Amino acid sequence: MTMFNLKSKKAIVTGGGGGIGSAMGQALYDAGAQVLLVGRSENVNRAAGNIGTREKPVKSLRADLSDYEKLESVFKQCVDRLGGLDIMAVCHGTLHVAEATDHDKEGWDKTISVNLTSVFSLNQLAGRQMIQQGSGKIINIASMLSFSGGLMATSYAASKGGVAQLTKALANEWSSKGVNVNAIAPGYIQTKLNKHIWSDPVRNQQILDRLPSGRWGLPSDLMGATVFLSSAASDYVHGVILPVDGGWLAR
Q: Structure pTM?
């Protein structure tokens, strides 16, 4: 099991105040990594406090990752506070719900900026450092809408399709340089971001009827995949979009 040991590894998790981000931070911490959570709201500080201990605290930083001009500065602060970087988990995101005919440009631009442009920028910043040191693991968060079009989420589907292709493109360039770039595609995981779906009795039942597992996923269901893609166990895994979906795509 030593190949799953992340002791002494330094990990940044964006979207660390959310359900998926905090669960991924917990997984990395439990596997031995030093963890820094980045998030826009006060939730990121609470999440860090809930995961860490006095003897081994989890660091946190509040920052708006949609502010492109500040991204490089935020990244540098994170690396400086950790004293290096081995793992980058990019989990932040936003969702704009609208009929395609009514989807406004402001919502489109924000979704693409947060879910795709900033993800590329953070991958690029992490990649530059990891290539220089000859090693590193990058995990992006894709989606079921990286594979299908979904409903009422045009910009989200476009952005997550982009994340999947970005992950493959970077893997093509960086795998020979010691850097693994992969993505996790969560299925229907109960978070605040999709509350409008699981709180709708009709839509919720439609989803449950298709899920072979018979239940929605929890953020904790992503923890094993997180450790795998961050560890030596995945050293020969490149450009994979790993579904953790309760069997959704198999149905």
A: 0.96
